[in-house]
# Entry
Amino acid sequence: MIDQFNSSNFPKSLDKLTESEIKRKACIAKVMTYTLRNLTSQFVNNGFEWLLPVTLSQSTDPLWPDPGASIEKRIEVDIYGKTVRTTASMIIHKLIASSTAYPKLFILSPNIRIEKAERAKTGMHIYEFSQLDFEIRDASSKDVMVLVEDAIYNLVTSLHQDMKKELITLCTSDTIKIPKKPFKIFDRCDLETEYGENWEEKISKEITDPIWITNIPREFYDFEDFKTGKWDNYDLFLPKFGETLSGAKREWEYAKIIEKIERDNVDKENYKLLLQLSKEGKLKPSSGGGIGLERLVSWISGAKHIAETQPFPRIPGIVHEL
Ligand code: ASP
Ligand code: MG
# Structure
C-alpha cells in the first residue's frame, strides 16, 4: 500500500474544520443524501422490502477467510447471559430473511470492522461503514450484476442532471463519467497472473470505470463449485477506492456449508440457526451483495480519504469523542 496520508492530513472531526473544509463537507453531504435517496428509491421501486438494521447478534459475518481482511479486534459482549457480537455484516440475517418472509430485501446496515491502525493511511478503510446490503431469493449472479449496473448507471446519470453544481464544486463533473453497461468482468486468477499478489491495489489505480472481479476465494456462504474450484461471486471495483461491493450466489445446502465451515475453522456454535435451517431444507438459494456507501460516495465526490464522507470520521487507530 502507498502511504498517502499522515496524521496531519487525515479528515478531522467537525469541531476542527476550517471554513472551507466545512463547505466541502456540506457539499459531500449533499451528494451522500442524493445517493441514499436515489439508490433506496431504485430498490423500493424494484420491489425490495426495506429492513431496519440490528447491531448486536450471536451470529455475524465471520470475515474469514477473506484475503482482504485485516481485523485487529472482534467485539463481543454479554447481554442477558448470552454472548453477542457487533455487526460485521448482516450476511447471515440476509440469508435467513430472504429464505423466509422477505424474498427481496435490503438494509442500510452498519458494519463494524476494527481494521488495523496502519490502514488509516490507505485512504480507503474506516472502522465503521455502511452498506446498502441486499439479497434476492432464487436470483443468479447475472441477475445481481445487471441490477447493480442499472443502479450505478441510473445514479450517475441522475447526479449529472440534478447535482451538477455540487460535482463542479468537488471537481468531479468531468471525471465521473456515466459508465457503459455491461461493466467489464475480470477473473481474479487472471489478475493475479498479470499483477501478482497486490492485484487489488494495482487494478484499483489503473481502472477509469467500474469493473467486476469474479471468482474470489472467500467466506463459506459464497458459492463454490467443488468440481471446478471456481467461486460464483463478484466484487464491484471503483477507480481508486477498489472493492465497493462484494456479493455472491450463496450456498444453501447443509452438506456443503458444514464442510466449508469445518475446512475454514469457523466456530459452528455461532451459526447454529443457519445450519439448522439448511439441514431442514429451509435455507433457499439466493444471490446478493452490499454496496459500500462511503466508498461509492468517495468515488463520486473525489474524496481524498474515505473518512471525508463521514460526519464522524472512523479512521483506523483514531478515536474521536464523537
Ligand atoms: N455484504 C456482503 C455480501 O452480501 C458481505 C460483506 O459485507 O462482506 O456478500
Ligand atoms: Mg466480505
Observations:
- Residues 66, 246 surround magnesium ion (ligand 2) (CB under 6 Å).
- The chain has a mean pLDDT of 97.
- The radius of gyration is 19 Å.
- The chain has nine helices and 13 strands.
